[in-house]
Amino acid sequence: MDWKIKYETHSDEEYSLGESSTTRNVLEMNNDHSVFQQNDLFPSAFPLMADIRRQGKLCDVVLKVDGQHFSAHKIVLAATIPYFNAMFMNDMVESRNKEIEIKCIDAMALESLVNFAYSGKVTLNKNNVQSIMIGASYLQLGKVRDACANYLLQRIHPQNALGFRQFADSLGCSALAESAERYIESYFHEVAQQEEFLNLTCAEIKTLLYKNELRVDSEEQVFEACMRWIKHEIKKRKEHLPELLSLVRLPLLSPLYITDRVRNEEQIRYSIQCRDLVDEALTFHLIPERRSLIQSFRVEPRVCDVQGHIYVVGGLNRLGDSVSTVEYYDPKSGKWHNAPPMSMMRSRLGVAVVKHKLYAFGGYNGKDSRLSSVEVYDAIKKEWNIVAPMICKRSALGATALGDLIYVCGGYDGVTSLNSVERYHPASNSWCSLAPMNKSRSAGAVIAFQGYIYVLGGHDGLSIFNSVERYNPATDTWTEAPPMLTKRCRLGVAMLGGKLYACGGYDGSSFLQTVEVFEPSANKWTYVAPMTAQRSRVALTSNMGKLWAVGGYDGISNLVTVEVYDPKYNEWRYAADMIAHEGGVGLGVISIPELSRS
Q1: Can you tell me whether residue 364 is helix, strand or coil?
Q2: What is the CATH number of the domain that holds 217?
Q3: Is the pLDDT of residue 547 over 70?
Q4: Do 351 and 456 reside in the same domain of the chain?
Q5: What is the chain's alpha carbon radius of gyration, rounded to the nearest angstrom?
Q6: Residue 269 in 3-state DSSP?
Q7: Which helix (H) or strand (E) holds 65?
Q8: Domain of 463: which CATH number?
Q9: Which pTM does this prediction carry?
Q10: pLDDT, tens digit, for every residue of 216-240?
Q11: In what order do the strands lie in the sheet with 586-590?
């Protein structure tokens, strides 16, 4: 008897028997054929193969390293590890051997990576990550190698940055090597304090000292690093001093530092080549007219591409009241975050940053007092503390750090504009008075530049200035510098790419959006692209290779907006608005290893 089966298609239906939604198998049908797909086959098969391996069954290869043996299946190794795929699939001698000797990988790493072949998982920790990274590179497991590199990068520190770079170079891991290189450039001073730095070769030290991208507070830090390396093994290394000292940009040091510190180094005194370099630096300072004749990279400031969090401190709220509020901007995420507030309300304050600490000086409390008090924010501990007060109470003052010292200039004491200047020494928590400025200046801008303190613009209660004067710490004297093209008070100033930028402010009749730049080699100011908005009481800083203009007042209202200037394209663009401030803020950038990983 003949049987005939009728086939019916159900193209719009999917059948499953007992499967969960996450492991449901699929049956695809049409009039001609059907395809069954078991989605959990591969995830379940590899654990089963791992179990078979643990039982020692069906294994057809033994990997030997450091006296230890690891059984495995050639088909699994060939399917998951490129090195073994090349070995077993290209008829190499090892493909026919039952036992294979593995070199260049330690036993622990090989065991982890063979387990990875069966599970797709590997556990990294500080004790095994470098061995596993070496093994992954050798076995051509690119994704495992990259995971190791990311693990290391998250734990980079001044103590290990040079070692990480050398390790990455040895494995050809360019991503980790480049990241370590950028870290070393950003934290050169901290890296130079470590033992790894002292063990570098002369060629490696030369490469570092020559770099234009070193982010240092001053060239003093580069000189001190150079001498520290030389003195570590002075008998062997002193012959390299002239060559290394030529890479230190001595003309950028202050005259006082050159005469009291550099020239008094014994090894420098006894070297004609070193003395010639010192003489060149002193000539740069003593005879400014001849600066243009010195054709050398040593007179060019390093391109300090600061990368850190932009802290906004104090200022005003919508109603024009002083606030104690603090927030910071993370350029990497493009977002603002709240930070612990100061102990008191401050607007028109001065701000300076030394290492990972931000200092808030004086200001106006919004009621009836100009302040002499000072407090400091520790970005690691995330807390504020009161330190020694200034000698004079000041609002609308300027503050800046030069090396480890902080200078405050001018301001308003509630009665008159000030020409007085003070210097704060954080290590001793003490103040001293310095020579007064040539003019009384309130609402001027203050910045450290090329070893000097520059004060720009401001007013004396009667007139608004375009004048600029410069303080020489070596001689405790003030001299006139080239004036700005526009008179400005309540302006912002910052240094970027070895140039000074002045932006915004008020000229007595207009709220300004113009921006000008001072080029030291030309010794003059020129205009660049104006900001989008008019900004008086603007705060300006450099960060990530760009200028950041924060807040201000446009003649109608206090501003929450932020603009960013890119010198490559000579244009301004808006960034994210502040979330807790409006105008009149103090500003500082804090960049430390701990923050870069936060």
Answers
A1: strand
A2: 1.25.40.420
A3: yes
A4: yes
A5: 32
A6: helix
A7: strand 61-65
A8: 2.120.10.80
A9: 0.57
A10: 877 888 999 999 999 999 999 999 9
A11: 335-339, 326-330, 309-313, 586-590
Q: Does position 511 have pLDDT exceeding 50, yes or no? A: yes
The DSSP call for residue 291 is G
**CA-CA distance, 586 to 380, in Å (whole number)?**
20
Q: Is residue 2 in some structural domain?
A: no
| β pairing state of 99-101 and 61-65 | parallel
**For residue range 50-80, what is the model confidence (pLDDT) as tens digits?**
788 888 888 888 999 988 999 999 899 999 9
CB within 8 A of 152, min separation 6: which ones? 129, 130, 133, 164, 167, 176
255 within 8 A of 472, measured Cβ to Cβ = yes
Last residue within a domain, chosen from 121, 137, 155: 155
Residue ending a domain, among 299, 319, 354, is 299
Q: How many CB atoms lie within 10 A of CB 263?
A: 16
The residue range of the domain holding 582 is 309-596
Same domain, 539 and 444: yes
DSSP string across 223-249: HHHHHHHHHHTHHHHGGGHHHHHTTS-
Q: Cβ contacts of residue 394 below 8 Å, gap of 6+?
A: 350, 361, 362, 363, 370, 371, 372, 408, 410, 411, 412, 413, 418
364, 410 contact by CB (below 8 A): no
Q: Would residue 69 count as lying in a domain?
A: yes
Tell me the C-alpha distance between 560 and 310, whole Å.
14
Hey, what are 381's tokens? 């501990």
Q: Please give the tally of structural domains in the chain.
A: 3
In the sheet with 539-543, reading across from the earlier edge strand, the strands are 539-543, 546-550, 562-566, 571-575
* One domain, residues 258 and 387: no
How many residues does the structure list for the chain?
Answer: 598
Residue with tokens 């391109």: 303
Q: Name the more confident of 392 and 35.
A: 392
Does 325 lie in the same domain as 367? yes
Higher-pLDDT residue of 243 and 9 is: 243
When pLDDT is averaged across residues 318-338 and rounded to a whole number, the result is: 90
Same domain, residue pair 279 and 326: no
The structure tokens listed for 34 are 């059907």
441 within some domain: yes
- Looking at the structure, tell me whether residues 218 and 321 fall in a common domain: no
Q: Please check whether residues 129 and 270 belong to one and the same domain.
A: no
- Check: CB of residue 142 under 8 Å from CB of residue 113: no
- 232 φ, ψ (degrees, to nearest 5): -65, -35
Within a domain: residue 47? Answer: yes
Q: Give the pLDDT score at 472.
A: 86
Residue 458, SS3 per DSSP: coil
CATH number at residue 112: 3.30.710.10
Mean pLDDT of all residues belonging to the chain: 88
Cβ neighbourhood burial of 240 (10 Å; 0-12, 13-18, 19+): middle
